[in-house]
Amino acid sequence: MEDWALIRQLHRSEGLSQAAIARQLGLSRNTVAKAVRSDAPPRYERQRPPSSGWAQIEPAVRELLSRFPTMPSTVIAERVGWCGGRSWFAENVARIRPEYAPADPCDRLVHRPGEQVQCDLWFPGQLVPDQAGVLRSFPVLVMVAAYSRFIAAAMLPSRVTGDLLAGMWLVLGSQIGAVPRTLLWDNESGIGQRRRLATGVAGFCGTLGTRMIQARPYDPETKGVVERANGYLETSFLPGRTFTCAADFNAQIQHRLTGANTRVHRTTKKRPVEELLTDRQSMAPLPPIAPGTGTSVTTRLGRDYYVAIAGSAYSVNPEVIGRMITVTAILDRVVARCGDRVVAEHQRYWGLNGLTTDPDHVAVAKAQREHYNSRPPTSGGVQVQVADLGAYDRAFGTEEVA
Length: 402
Known about the structure:
Radius of gyration: 38 Å
Structural class: alpha+beta
Strand order of the largest sheet: 5-4-1-6-9
Mean pLDDT: 87
Distance between the termini: 132 Å
Strand content: 15-25%
Helix content: 25-40%
Number of strands: 16
Oligomer: single chain
Low-confidence stretches: none
């Protein structure tokens, strides 16, 4: 490239002959002559031999792609009778497929007041310690009102369905203050996959009077509002911070979002906290009855008066050993009920393999054990009938004569 430019400069600007340029630069006369004649810089282009295997089957491949643009390369290879390398064939198909694949245009989204709240999970990394002091990566539920761009967030103990529903109810009730017409999620397993909602999600939406929408795969523009909010938290909130627990994380992120929501948004040129009032006017009020959230397990309490839920074990009053109990884990508490009676209530353990014990339950178990060990022995005055085995001898005529 440099030689080509220098040759043309010497020939046109300084008027040197081709022979003089060849002597001055130490190049052959043919090289100088080609540079003078060409109007574009030299570029290496690999020439594909016309007799290659791909050249022979390319027309058949193109004919299939013209009718079926999304046909997998493995199927195309089978249809055209290709017996060579699979990866090399797939690379060539991928090279020409864009010529036949239909375009997927993206319309500009216009969000109306109260129409949608976009939801997503953000994972800040192993920065928050659990009750045992082990650093863990807890998910953060981020919800953004699409019209006002108001950002709300809360850290959750896990990404299971019960915790996601409890987190959405917490954020809607304490931060947004109303219910939008739609909630937008991606294909999060705790919400639903393959166009089927997870168990409990439909009931949650029915209680709130809203609709759950899941974005199509490979369509990031659908929930770009919340994706940009995740990027903002990653770059403007997280760096340089330390956290003592999940409650400390939630307190710090709420303080940060309070300031962020009062600033003028770059796109809307308005303050999200002020536009949220317009959003709320078009949203539905919060229902008078809280929707069902959390993770519930119904089981029979065994002699080991502990029940496992949400990855940890919690003690239950031993008085209900052998009876059916229902254990519910919400964001901050674990409650066990036997009928209408509360038989256990603990602070939830954020993490895995935790063991939470109530001293009162241990005391009850000790009293029951002492009572069991001090019970009186079985009475020996019970008359037990002894079978007369001689009846068999008399029946078969084998009785001994005295």
